[in-house]
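lol ok so funny story. i was supposed to be doing the assay writeup but got distracted and ended up predicting the structure for this chain instead. priorities right. anyway since i did it might as well share w the group, maybe its usefull for someone
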Amino acid sequence: MFFFLFSSFRFKQLYNYTSYGIPTKYGQKYFVAIREPEQNQAIIYSLESLTGEMKIFLDPNNLSSDDTISLKFTAFSNDGKYCAYGISNGGSDWTRIHIKNVDTLEDLSDKLI
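and the output, tada:
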């Protein structure tokens, strides 16, 4: 029993780490996903250069107050001006697609359901 409790505790310690995605360039900006240990989902950051300041581009952890919305995917336009991202609610298989303007950080009014 002690071994199981110790193993479980140790596993949680080892699993609690910051994970980094690979920076990818779309248009004139770089984007990278980073998940801190206390976050359920990775935050997507934008950077002007690989050594530039990171700015939050999309934080799926703030899309709902009860963590029921999850980010399913992101896809950028060829020119890097728009980002389509899919979200699902409450573990549903249905994905709602939003389009975000990369420069203004605002979602377009159109949504695909």
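The two ends are 49 Å apart (CA to CA). The chain has a mean pLDDT of 89.
back to the writeup now i swear
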